[in-house]
Amino acid sequence: MKIYAVCGAGIGTSVLLKSNADRVLAAMGIEAEVQAVSINDAMASESLAQIVLITPELHEQIKGIRSEVIPIDNIFNLEELQQKLTAALS
Amino acid sequence: MLAQAFGPNSIAHHFEVTDWEGALTKAVALLEKDLRVTSEYLDEVLAANQKLGPYFVIAPGIAIAHAAPGVGVLETGMALLRLEQPVVSGSNNDPVRLVFAFCSVDADSHVELLASFASVMTVEGNVNRLLNEPDLSVIRNLLTA
User: Fold this and answer.
1) DSSP helix/strand/coil, A79
2) What pLDDT is attached to residue B55?
3) pLDDT (tens digit, 9 = 90+) per residue, B25-43?
4) How far apart are CA A81 and CA B12, in angstroms?
5) Per-residue pLDDT band at B66 (split at 50, 70, 90)
6) Catalytic annotation present for B13
7) Which of A84, A50, A57 shows the shortest CA–CA distance to A70?
8) Which residue among A11, A61, A73 sits closest to B107, beta carbon to beta carbon?
9) Chain A residues whose C-beta sits inside 8 Å of any chain B C-beta
10) Which end of chain A is more exposed for a tag (fewer CB within 10 A), N or C?
């Protein structure tokens, strides 16, 4: 399964998101490839990710992508990440 | 790794009233003081803020100001400006009290650094300590231990 962690430049917020998503997914025992990408790369990518993790401010700008988009309000809250990923994957 | 990223001048309080752009400017100025960026980097950060809105605000009260790697970056680095008078950015996570600034020389060198940062920030109680600890050297130890 492929998951995109998305931010404006693809280097800061997205890397933090990826790092915490990796930890949560490992704890849940789910194998997934999480890639930190910029919003432009996510929109332009040919290979679709099943899930896109994104900060709420950028949510509007990624509408139209054919992935399930999950806005994350608190990037440092592993429980929020786990709850939202669990809901999306069940 | 975090110990190298936070230069000697990189952690500071800010006591005066400011606004969102002022807070970004002062946080990025800490990177400049430690010779991690040139003044060009601030232009990049402010332009990203203009274009994408306050998406630097990634958790309640916490922002991480940055722009793409390269332009205006001399060395990968981090800084923290703690606002004693919080600011409003327009994010759902307002008001903002901790403004981190971050810069990377290329697209790879900072990945481990940010992973360490994410680990520190997810330890229960650490965010509260960053918000309330009066002694900056204690904050530095917490971030770089």
Assistant:
1) helix
2) 81
3) 999 999 999 999 999 999 9
4) 31
5) very high
6) no
7) A84
8) A11
9) 7-13, 15-16, 19-20, 23, 36, 55-58, 61, 73-78
10) C
Which tokens in the block code for residue B78?
Answer: 């981090």
Tokens of A22: 């990796």
Rg (CA), chain A: 12
How many angstroms separate the CA atoms of B100 and B66, rounded? 9
Report CB contact under 8 Å: B68, A11: yes
The pLDDT assigned to A7 comes to 85
- Cβ atoms of residues B77 and B10 within 8 Å: yes
Taking only the tens place, the pLDDT of each residue in A15-70 is: 999 999 999 999 999 999 999 998 888 988 877 899 999 988 888 888 888 899 99
Token pair recorded at residue B86: 């919080």
Q: What is the pLDDT of residue A12?
A: 85
Find the closest chain B residue to A7 by CA distance.
Answer: B55
Here the ipTM equals: 0.84
Tell me the count of A-B CB pairs closer than 8 A.
79
Q: Which two tokens stand for residue B59?
A: 């958790």
